[in-house]
Write a structure and sequence with these properties.
eight-stranded mixed beta sheet; 259 residues; alpha/beta
Length: 259
């Protein structure tokens, strides 16, 4: 893979940002007609744009399929236009795709674009895809915060003053979150009859502190008959499991192997 470490001034955020874009270097990709398929891969709460590269082998896994991988950084924003902060939802869902498609060989077609993430990034992947179903054909969450209302009500979040204050900076009045554009369950209900609803993949470890959070999302979506796969297995909230499961996500995307 060719690793592009990009430093540019974001017009949305109004300051310079770092972005990593991995492009396949295989001969098969270089002679293929058209542009590359692309996976936008989102980090968790304590991470940044380097985390997937540092703690997983996603570079090697993606090269097998000849797919581009985009790694943004959004601080602790939950991929949201923050109530007291920056517009990271617009940055990831609008500015980054337009920016990279303008000067790199990356497709802008819905069927060629996917989004996935872990923990906070799992929330972000679902929120961005469900809010922009015309842009993404599939979204995957690994150990994701897929029930934001459950997180806000959890004893762990409320007792951790630092985390709870960060969350209030993101969402503002927390009593207004349920049923809003920040609520993934509400977004599912809103889009359940949308023919462009992305395919959804969800995984969480059974020892993960977000396991119950994921079961709530699964139980909400299962009766709706949507294109949704839920899987679980032994595992906690750590990188060895995400490294293993990102391989499963790439298989689930049904990409053609080129290596």
């Amino acid at each position: 893979m060719v690793i592009n470490e990009i430093n540019f001034r974001s017009s949305v955020l109004r300051y310079r940002q770092k972005l990593i874009v991995m492009l396949p270097q295989t001969a098969e990709c270089s002679i293929r007609p058209g542009k590359l398929k692309c996976l936008t891969l989102l980090h968790g709460l304590s991470d940044d744009e380097t985390s997937w590269m540092r703690w997983s082998n996603v570079e090697r896994y993606a090269d097998k399929y000849g797919i581009a991988v985009v790694l943004p950084s959004v601080e602790k924003s939950f991929y949201t236009n923050m109530a007291y902060g920056d517009n990271f939802f617009d940055y990831v869902s609008e500015e980054i795709p337009q920016f990279i498609q303008s000067f790199l060989p990356i497709s802008d077609k819905r069927e060629d674009n996917f989004i996935a993430g872990l923990s906070m990034g799992g929330y972000g992947a679902y929120k961005i895809a469900l809010s922009n179903p015309e842009k993404y054909c599939a979204a995957a969450s690994l150990s994701g915060v897929v029930d934001i209302n459950g997180l806000l009500a959890s004893r762990e979040a409320q007792q951790d003053v630092s985390v709870f204050n960060d969350i209030k900076l993101v969402f503002g009045d927390l009593e207004k979150v349920p049923g809003s554009k920040h609520d993934l369950l509400a977004l599912i209900d809103k889009n359940k009859n949308n023919p462009l609803l992305p395919r959804l993949y969800q995984w969480c470890g059974t020892e993960d502190y977000l396991h119950q959070n994921n079961l709530i999302f699964r139980n909400h979506i299962s009766p709706l008959g949507l294109d949704h796969i839920y899987e679980e297995g032994p595992g906690d909230h750590t990188w060895p499991h995400w490294d293993r499961m990102i391989q499963r996500v790439l298989q689930w995307l049904d990409l053609e192997e080129v290596n």
